Amino acid sequence: MKTFITATLVTIVLTILLGIIYPLAMTGIAQLIFPDKANGSLVMVKDSVVGSSLLGQTFATAKYFHSRPSAAGDGYDPLKSGGSNLGPTSKALYNRIKHDADSLRALYPELKGDLPSDMLTTSGSGLDPDITLENAMTQAPIVAKANNIPVEEIKKMISEKLKGRDLGFLGEERINVLELNIALLAKQK
What we know:
Elements: H1 2-33, H2 35-38, E1 42-45, E2 48-52, H3 91-107, E3 130-132, H4 133-147, H5 151-161, E4 174-176, H6 177-188
Antiparallel strand pairs: 1-2, 3-4
Helix pairs in contact: 4-5, 5-6
């Protein structure tokens, strides 16, 4: 009986300490030091939340830059985050990529030659908000034509939104699609 009481008290104390006090302390510290990140890195336009800089979104028309394809449920559902688990020798992956490439070329005849890999492949999480410079430049003539904006202006906007490699050497240069589309909207007004 003494062991049972001790185990119960330890469980209660650890639950209060690690299940309530510690999470509240970490949340409070995060709110003080990194309030933007602690609140989901929300992107605001005119006092309205339009998305998160950490999550990709679906942009359905040629007027906007498109994110990478998503393997996270129907679109960019953070509750269904994850890759497709299809390997490089998968026939299903090959067929999906071929279908997507053919569909893009049918929709946008100006797409010639090889398409950037991130235009056709999903990220590990399926929620990647960024595209490569090559992807953005490939989409630039399409977006310029749809918005009746000179392609050089679109390319300049892309260059302004380009983020370098993390720590100068990790990953690739990238562009956040939501931020790029917000800049595009501002240019249209």
